[in-house]
Design brief:
With about 600 residues, this protein is α/β, with parallel strands linked by helices. About 40% of the residues lie in helices and about 20% in strands. The protein is built from 22 helices and 20 strands.
Length: about 600
């Protein structure tokens, strides 16, 4: 960072564009933030003097002119997310344009930075080696905001429920909030803080990965801080760095109060599932003791009835305009897929015919009518290979593809174009190397044992927050450059998942593609054997980690039965894989394509 001597007119300071490598990236998620954005951007210009600061505003479909205000100066990177994705979803969308910045500053749109704030945060990060540093926060009239928090626990939930504001100076084990003014007078390690302003070291972000979009609003920062600490990074408070926070930028309503409480339950269910029932009961007590406040009525109902959670504010995606569909190449390797290829191509037909998408079907070793069916779709390029190899097909598709990013799609995946659009947008910048859209698992007609397996699998974060075993993912140009050509391997998606750090890939929410799971036990075992063969080829064995994670999902009899089914199928697949390897050995060359007929 260069040093600027003498007074400088901050109004002439410019933010770094996409053609300049930034030394800091500021991420702002805006939603109906027109009243606040100008003040924040003005305060950031003062901080931008002498540094290469890139400012990215992810706008969640505002209708008040927020996008126009952000774009007006001409040096702010604006990402239109395509809907109201919530705070976590907006941050993930903004990550598409962080480049190689060593640090990321996350700001609410209704804050204003005091001069020297960023330098003080950076200095604390440098001397402490912290993964996160947060500033002192003042409210709109300059009063200290009690923004520091302790890790949620059952005892603290009990203290907050029974004592509330009656005994503010109670011991720390009885309160989640830190209300002692002395705690805000000196730098020190903390558990977490409200998310109005957070400086995050890039190494920590890359180790932790994306923000959890299940929270939409509230508790998303609690979850992120917790995961950063779990990775071994410290979190620090720096009082010499100050921001002013108007608050209320997200609005206030009975539904938002309910969402606050519900997301506290979601957080505990994610990180401490065995005590979640007790924590939820204490939150019910908390709300019952505040029956005289009508703004808590919705929260009381929601805490008692999980069915009401779907009525609370959640991510909303706008319809995708075909005329503005983001450009990309879609490569579909296909081996004897005549029964499903038309179903996969039909939703992409108009986009291929108009040239909005480059769609390439690579028929490898086909002896059926796959190529003829694909060729009937206008705008679809069909390549035929004699070799039966998914890897060879993907490399052949890459050789003729002209666009970036690239999406790789199994021929039996049912596509929602809006789902592909979310992945394409995420890969359009310089910060994300790999991404995949949300996935809906279709298990209609599956046996009870398979449904139990899938329920257990869904409860395990490592099984749902990964690139593999879903049949679709995308690579940016930079990501593909790091990969090179696809090597001979059974599990190309597993290879991609392990190639990039968590912070360099996105598992998106919102519109989803549909993946049909096997309906029969034999089909599921075949699916699992192929997965195990892929992990073996790449010298990976996640069995111990998966077992530990699975045990953590058991909270009652139902989840225990589901876990037992999961273990049964996993052990059977492990045995079958070992048996085949011992008796047949592994075939030379690229592995042959296999398919599950129960889903066709």
């Amino acid at each position: 960072m260069s040093v600027v001597a003498g007074p400088v007119d901050a109004s002439t300071a410019r933010f770094a564009g996409l053609d300049i490598a930034p030394d800091l990236v500021v991420l702002i998620v805006s939603y109906q933030s027109a009243a606040d954005l100008r003040l924040l951007l003005d305060s950031l210009r003062v901080e931008a003097i002498g540094r290469h600061m890139r400012v990215v505003v992810a706008d969640n479909a505002s209708t008040d002119g927020s996008v126009d205000i952000a774009r007006a100066p001409g040096d702010v990177v604006v990402v239109e997310t395509g809907g109201n994705l919530g705070y976590a979803g907006g941050l993930n969308a903004a990550m598409s344009h962080v480049g190689e910045a060593p640090a990321i500053l996350v700001l609410n749109p209704d804050v204003v930075l005091e001069p020297g704030c960023i330098a003080a945060l950076e200095n604390r990060m440098r001397v402490s080696g912290a993964g996160i540093v947060v500033p002192r926060i003042l409210d709109a009239v300059g009063a200290l905001s009690f923004s520091l928090r302790r890790e949620p626990s059952v005892i603290r939930a009990l203290g907050d429920a029974l004592l509330g504001n009656l005994w503010l100076s109670r011991p720390e084990w009885l309160s989640e909030s830190v209300r002692s003014e002395r705690a805000y007078s000196s730098p020190h390690r903390i558990d977490w803080a409200t998310g109005a302003a957070i400086l995050i070291d890039r190494t920590a972000w890359d180790a932790v990965g994306q923000w959890d979009e299940r929270f939409f609003l509230y508790s998303e920062e609690t979850d992120f801080f917790q995961r950063v600490r779990r990775q071994g990074f410290d979190v620090w408070f720096e009082p010499s760095a100050t921001v002013r926070h108007r608050e209320g930028g997200s609005g206030s309503s009975e539904e938002l109060v309910a969402l606050l409480r519900v997301n506290q339950v979601r957080y505990i269910e994610k990180h401490r599932p065995r005590t979640a029932w007790l924590h939820r009961a204490l939150l019910v007590v908390h709300e019952e003791l505040r029956r005289n406040d009508p703004t808590h009525d919705c929260a009381r109902r929601a805490l008692r009835r999980r069915a009401l959670w779907s009525d609370l504010p959640a991510a909303r995606f706008d319809a995708v305009d075909p005329a503005a569909f983001p450009s990309a190449s879609v490569i579909i390797p296909a081996h004897n897929e005549s029964s499903v290829i038309a179903r996969t191509l039909a939703p992409l037909a108009a986009l291929a015919a108009s040239g909005a998408l480059e769609v390439i079907v690579v028929c490898n070793g086909c002896s059926d009518g796959t190529a003829d069916i694909a060729a009937r779709f206008a705008g679809v390029t069909v390549i035929e290979l004699a070799e039966t190899s998914k890897v060879a097909a993907m490399n052949a598709g890459d050789e003729v593809a002209m666009r970036w990013p690239r999406l790789y799609l199994d021929a039996d995946v049912e596509v929602d174009p809006a789902a592909l659009a979310t992945a394409i947008r995420a890969l359009a910048g310089d910060g994300i190397f790999a991404a995949r859209p949300a996935v809906r698992i279709d298990a209609d007609g599956a046996s009870p044992a398979i449904r139990a397996y899938l329920r257990a699998r869904h409860r395990m974060p490592s099984m749902t927050q990964a690139m593999w075993d879903v049949g679709v993912y995308g690579l940016s140009r930079a990501g593909h450059d790091r990969l090179g050509s696809f090597p001979p391997a059974t599990a190309d998606d597993l290879l991609v998942d392990h190639l990039f750090a968590p912070g360099r890939k996105l598992i998106l929410s919102g519109p989803a593609v549909t993946v049909r799971m096997p309906r029969t036990a034999e089909g599921l075992l075949g699916f699992l054997v192929r997965s195990r063969r892929g992990t073996a080829e790449q010298s990976l064995d996640t069995g111990a980690l998966s077992l530990k994670e699975l045990l953590g999902t058991i909270t009652g009899l139902g989840s225990a039965v589901d876990a037992a089914c999961f273990v049964g199928f996993a052990l059977a697949a492990r045995y079958r894989t070992a048996n085949r390897t011992m008796h047949a050995g592994r075939a030379s060359g690229a592995p042959a394509r296999e398919s599950d007929d129960s889903t066709r």
